[in-house]
Amino acid sequence: FSRKIQQLLQVQLQPKAGTGNQPAITAADLVAALQRNELSLCYQPKYQLTDNKLVGFEALARWKSPLFGQVPPTVFIQLAEQSGVIDALTDWVLAEVIAQLSRWSEQKLSTCVAVNLSLINLQNINFPARLLHELKCHQLQPQQLVLELTESAFMNEVVTALDILIRLRMNGIELSIDDFGTGYSSLAQLQRIPFTELKIDRRFIANFLHEAESQAIVETCINLAHKMHIRTVAEGVETAETLQALQAIGCDYAQGYFFHPPLTVPQATELLKAVVL
Ligand code: C2E
Ligand code: CA
Ligand code: CA
Ligand code: CA
């Protein structure tokens, strides 16, 4: 019993990760981390619900810092957005994804990858031309890239962003509205921007089976998207029951722990090989 108390005391004495005892992470730390190659990408598979076919991956950024430990993406993405480092970070993500798609193509494992973009990234009118050039240099099709957009509170140059998105779409790059139904991902965006995909936020999917309100929201999102000829993706699918219910109401794609968590590159490669062979 006293050992138990000792253990409890010890636990309390250990500083918890990410609290007071740790120095605050700054934008300079993030820039240094990018330069030191401390960031990596993992790839979460996305499945088509009519035939359970693997249709691609979502690239998700990870930062393992020798100083701060594993920093959650929500933390460093927000830091990047607030400090302007997000452009460098997104450039790095896109370059990394294009290189990976190219390596997979060389192994006859062509696939699609979705990249998360912040609307802050869409202020440079040269962005579409640069991106299309990179894809072409690596002999990749624009259709192999999906850009997932979450509107952030920091955007002001709306006109440029819209212009850029239309150029990207006209050239075959797919556009996805992420976290639909939450915060800033709104109906107005759906009307203005030529999206090809709508991602229903995880919070609605999590409560979907047991809460009439969530169910109504999910069904309405799917109906709305289909009327606009936009496909739907459910994120955060964790159980077979949820998957079946989503299938029954005609959701197109899904991703989540039920299928796979975000995977390392070797794991994703194995999965692609298993599908192709
Ligand atoms: P998101 O785009 O909504 O990504 C989905 C998040 O849900 C990911 O969290 C993923 O790991 C997690 N997830 C996937 N399946 C499940 C599930 O079945 N259950 C639960 N509970 N969670 C699941 P993650 O990787 O921590 O990323 C958090 C957010 O950070 C992302 O949300 C995205 O907004 C942002 N983010 C991540 N990587 C990037 C990036 O490269 N660029 C930008 N701009 N944002 C990124
Ligand atoms: Ca996303
Ligand atoms: Ca999302
Ligand atoms: Ca989300």
UniProtKB/TrEMBL annotation:
EAL domain segment(s): 23-276
Keywords linked to the UniProt accession: Phosphoprotein
Protein name stated in the entry: EAL domain-containing protein
UniProt organism field: Rheinheimera tilapiae
Residues of the full protein shown: 114 to 390 of 390
